[in-house]
Amino acid sequence: MKAIRFEKTGGPEVLHLVDVDVPPPREGEVRLVQRAIGLNYIDTYHRSGLYAVPLPSGIGLEAAGGVEAVGPGGKGLKPGDRVAYGTGPLGAYAEVRNYPANRLVKLPKAISDETGAAMMLKGMTVRYLLRATYKVKRGETILLHAAAGGVGLILSQWAKALGVKVIGTVGSDAKLAIAKAHGCAHVINSSTENVAARVREITNGAGVPVVYDGVGQATFMTSLDCLRPRGLLVSFGNASGPVKAFDLGLLAAKGSLFVTRPTLFSYTSTDLDFRETAGDLVEIVKSGK
């Protein structure tokens, strides 16, 4: 069987397609024949070394396919079941692999393998952002950076389905229509407009209760300036680089603000959390909303 592995960190050139042996599934595992694999920005963090992983290593966190064999204790699954995953362990870039049965979600007929593989990590991220880190409320207006990105497109649609108005930022005029078409009530081109001023204008000077920021260092201060008093900045990604150390006194000066740096892995660390998160995602995707 073929899989992609890397023995040292660096650019794409460190990734190698190799032959691997896949043993029978162990206790609590199933063997998957993978038909679609999801690509995520975090894969580049693992490959580059920004997020350290033991080497040598596989790469990739999400995929979809069919169960080929079930190991001892692999409850709730049988050969032929269509399933998907999105929380690791690493190694999704592979034709066949063994995977913990308790970290898989069954796919209904309404969801294709391609959709299943593309939705899991980003979709479960959106679920914890909207329903756990900060539980958005119908009628609220929120700010989302990188609204035309992978997480952004899902979050905008899901938030709209919940009755929430999304102010989205994008980096070019070409992306304005994309964000608007996927649920944003307002879209700001951050390369030509003052984001904080536009947010204040849209909210009649109030600011927003929460900012979802997957960009990182480049948007951190702007995000703080968009919040209402006691608002929450959810910094969930580092696309522009990690946020540098800053004076906590800024949070007091800007209105007793809150900042959190969550991860999907913390919000799905228990089997119950995983089932609830993945289950909600499957239902919203199946609904077509």
Summarize the structure.
With 289 residues, the protein is an alpha/beta fold. 30% of the residues lie in helices and 25% in strands.
Topology:
Elements (H helix, E strand, L loop, with lengths): L1 E5 L9 E4 L9 E10 L2 H8 L8 E2 L3 E9 L11 E4 L10 E5 L4 E2 L6 H21 L7 E4 L5 H12 L3 E6 L5 H6 L4 E4 L5 H8 L5 E6 L6 H7 E9 L13 H5 L4 E3 L3 H4 L3 H17 L2
Parallel strand pairs: 9-10, 9-12, 10-11, 12-13, 13-14
Antiparallel strand pairs: 1-2, 1-4, 3-5, 3-7, 5-6, 6-8
Helix pairs in contact: 2-3, 2-9, 5-6
The number of E-state strands comes to 14
Q: Round the mean pLDDT to the nearest integer and report it.
A: 96
Biggest β-sheet description: 6 strands, parallel
Number of separate helices:
9
> What Rg is obtained from the alpha carbons, in whole angstroms?
20 Å
CATH C-level class of the largest domain is Alpha Beta
User: Order of strands across the biggest sheet?
Assistant: 11-10-9-12-13-14
Structure description:
By secondary structure, this protein is α/β, with parallel strands linked by helices. It folds into two domains: 2-107, Medium-chain alcohol dehydrogenases, catalytic domain (Quinone Oxidoreductase, Chain A, domain 1), CATH 3.90.180.10; 122-265, 3-Layer(aba) Sandwich (Rossmann fold). Helix content is 30%, strand content 25%. The strands form three sheets. It has a six-stranded parallel sheet, with helices on both faces. It has a five-stranded antiparallel sheet with strand order 7-3-5-6-8. Strand 9 (141-144), helix 3 (150-161) and strand 10 (165-170) form a beta-alpha-beta unit. It is globular. The two termini are 38 Å apart.
